[in-house]
Design brief:
The chain is an alpha/beta fold. The chain has two domains: 161 residues, Bacterial extracellular solute-binding protein, family 7 (D-Maltodextrin-Binding Protein, domain 2, 3-Layer(aba) Sandwich), CATH 3.40.190; 78 residues, Periplasmic binding protein-like II (D-Maltodextrin-Binding Protein, domain 2). The protein is 37% helix and 18% strand. It has ten helices and ten strands. The strands form two sheets. It has a five-stranded mixed β-sheet. α2 runs antiparallel to α10 and α4 packs antiparallel against α10. The longest helix has 17 residues. The radius of gyration is 24 Å and the shape is elongated. The chain starts with a helix and ends with a helix. It is found in: Periplasm. One of its GO terms (cellular component) is periplasmic space. Pfam families: DctP (PF03480). This is TRAP-type C4-dicarboxylate transport system, substrate-binding protein.
Length: 278
């Protein structure tokens, strides 16, 4: 083949080849199953800004959009993620009693009043001792944390002795709370926070084990008229911000790494500071 013919072939190939730049990561929109009130501090001051931070660090390639209402049930958010019905959710493992017993060690009474300490410690404990067991392996947890300690809220009735609680029906968020309620000779009623207002308003429960910020965030202050503070808290509750495997796998490895940088311990530490002010 002559040199002139070969040059002509190469030139023709170059002209006909499409001009392409470096491969770009695809944009991903993820659905967040929202069940917290929009004004609740965890939602408004932590989760919503976290979603904005995710969009920022991925240069807009990953965005999270809230659904108009919760997908599935509040108690079933773990399975909502496992089944791919939503991509992101706030999961409370204690809402499914007995399913995740290893988390109960973080939910025992009297573990402290300062979320600036307890929240980062709870995340470190999860990473060091719980994650290696394969706990939550069906989904992608990006922040596992406890909230403010919970105390005893009552619709009515002054408490001057433990015997004043005997027989009262108290909402319980998880197993450790139920055990504490039974030790007080009261009756545990296991329900997610989203159902407490209706239960209290109708008189189906006499009160509950509820953190102070949650009492205000779910507009229960007018219904729960007595609040009994216990140093260190009656219990705490493990929460988790997580992605579904399916949703996470749609994100490029580079953007996954960027999201992890603004999640985990940095996010939980910021939560502790916000909770301490709430």
């Amino acid at each position: 083949m002559s040199r002139k013919l070969l040059s002509g072939i190469l030139l023709a190939a170059m002209v006909s080849a499409p001009l392409t730049g470096p491969a770009q990561a695809e944009s991903v929109t993820l659905r967040y199953s929202q069940w917290l009130p929009a004004t609740y501090p965890l939602q408004a001051e932590i989760i919503d800004p976290w979603f904005e931070e995710i969009a920022r660090v991925t240069e807009g390639r990953v965005t999270v959009v809230a659904t108009p209402k919760v997908v599935g049930t509040v108690a079933g958010q773990y399975d909502v993620l496992v089944d791919g019905l939503a991509d992101v959710a706030l999961v409370v493992p204690g809402y499914t009693p007995g399913r995740f017993p290893l988390t109960e060690g973080l939910e025992l009474p009297f573990l402290g009043d300062d979320p600036r300490v307890s929240m980062p410690v709870s995340y470190r404990t999860y990473k060091t001792y719980l994650e290696p067991t394969g706990l939550f392996k069906e989904i992608v947890p990006l922040a596992v944390f406890t909230g403010n300690p919970a105390h005893i809220a009552l619709r009515s009735g002054e408490v001057t002795a433990l015997s004043d609680l005997a027989g009262k029906k108290l909402r319980s968020p998880q197993q450790a709370a139920s055990a504490s309620i039974e030790l007080l000779d009261a009756v545990p009623v296991s329900k997610p926070m989203s159902e407490v207002y209706e239960l209290a308003s109708s008189g189906a429960i006499d009160g509950g084990i509820i953190p102070p910020d949650t009492l205000l965030g779910f507009k229960l202050a007018g219904t729960m008229k007595e609040y009994l503070l216990v140093p260190g808290g009656i219990v705490n509750t493990v929460n988790m911000l997580a992605f579904s495997r399916e949703g996470w796998d749609r994100i490029s490895p580079e953007d996954q790494a960027a999201i992890r940088e603004v999640s985990g311990l940095p996010l939980v530490t910021k939560m502790g500071e916000i909770y301490a002010r709430s």
